[in-house]
Amino acid sequence: MIQFTGMLFSFIAYLEHEKRASPHTVLAYKKDLEQFQDFLLRSFDLEDLAAAGHAEVRAWMIDLIEQKLTATTVNRKMATIRSYYKFLLRSGEVDKNPTFKLRSLKKGRSLPEFIQRDEIQTVLEEMNYSAGFPGQRDRIVMEFLYLTGVRLSELLSIKWQDINLYKDEVSVLGKRKKYRIIPLTRSLKTNLISYRKEFEERFSKVEESDYFIVRNSKEQAYPMMIYRIVREHLDLYVQATKRSPHLLRHTFATHLLNKGADLNAVKDLLGHSSLAATQVYTHNSIEKLKAVFEQAHPKA
């Protein structure tokens, strides 16, 4: 095990105090450096990381690949080594960075999973709405996630003052503290009115500062509660492997694009900062087109 003294100690201190890295990140860096040091000792009889060159660093990368580690894991470990040698270079401990010409592994991008239209329709139709406030709240959770595409954290932060039933829209505080406006469908608006009525019957008049989704005690809802609601109602009808609130966000985006929605419009509705994050959903649309083509074209 590495003794974190000298430049290694200084590097860890730099991560903790100047970069303000989280304890989890610092621990990951320590483990990566320990593994690299162990490899250098076993393979090249080197004790000082500063003595390693491009060949030694590349040899470790190849060793990691041969261990069948994922491209993501290998790239993360290489990022640790890059950071360390950049630190040594700035400190004058080395005169060149042995990771300079190192290239990251290409990662295959997995397509986001989504729920088929008939499946989500069945879920929403079969939900039991007769259980008073809890039933109405659970219905709104499912419909709101699917019909607005909001993130879990965004749903939890919405207050009644953010919902404008006159303009049929909701104001959502997203990442980077940026607000965006999402329109409400006619059916969602109707069910929101019913939910508000149940809310007021249970807790008296709605205050605009009240949280929109709450527990039965009127306290703000929490993430695991939303996960439980989503899983409970997806388990019976949905074939997807991950039954999470984010699955409904993926479904929202995919269904919009499958119906011909403009990519830039979907980007704004999702609160993405660039088109790159939104474009992954177009692959699902393309896969659907391919399936239709192969089924329908006589020469496919």
* Mean of pLDDT: 87
Largest sheet: spatial strand order: 1-2-3
Poorly predicted ranges (pLDDT <50, ≥5 residues)?
A: none
Beta-strand share of residues:
under 5%
Which H/E pattern describes the elements? HHHHHHHEEEHHHHH
Q: How many discrete domains?
A: 2
> Share of helix among residues?
55-70%
- CATH class designation of the largest domain: Mainly Alpha
Question: What integer value in Å does the Rg equal?
Answer: 26 Å
Number of helices: 12
From the N-terminal CA to the C-terminal CA, the straight-line distance is 59 Å
Question: Structural class, from secondary structure content?
Answer: mainly alpha
What is the β-strand count?
3
Quick one: overall form? elongated
Name of the CATH homologous superfamily of the largest domain? Intergrase catalytic core
Largest sheet: 3 strands, antiparallel
